[in-house]
Amino acid sequence: AALCLGFALQAHAHAAISPALGVKGTPVRNDAQRPQKNSECGNIDIAKNFDSSTAVQAAANGSFVATITNFNGGIDGSRQVTALVDPTGTGKSFVSADVLQNGDKNPNDNGSQQLVVQLPAGSTCAGGASKDKCLVSFTTAGGFGNCVVVQQAAAASGKGDSQSTAAAAA
User: In whole angstroms, what is the distance from residue 65 CA to residue 131 CA?
Assistant: First the structure.
């Protein structure tokens, strides 16, 4: 039984993006999900966790920074991601987002990297009680990932200058 449990844990999760939806503090291996179509946040209850999860602040130009941590090397622990954004925060209206700074596709070791993502031009985050949050689903090249809540600044327009982008990437 212990051997089966060990294999189940190994197959469960290999990279997570923080701050992760429904996770207090830094994500651990078991916090990563397997995002899929119609279940982009894995098995996390979006409605229950959306407003209570730590949100990443988007810059005025719509870019934001998140951190990916892998728990094993190789493609299985890939830190390279694709991103989808749901401006409603419900998990039902995802559209593609541009990853401006990505992680390593095939890392040799465990570690963390910053990701910089651009919300689609003209996006207005309207989710949550504050009506200014988006839900972002990340999926690694290895098929793991999770969702992150992003809070949009009141003046965000989806456009910005190079100083805002540089500040968001810093």
Answer: 21
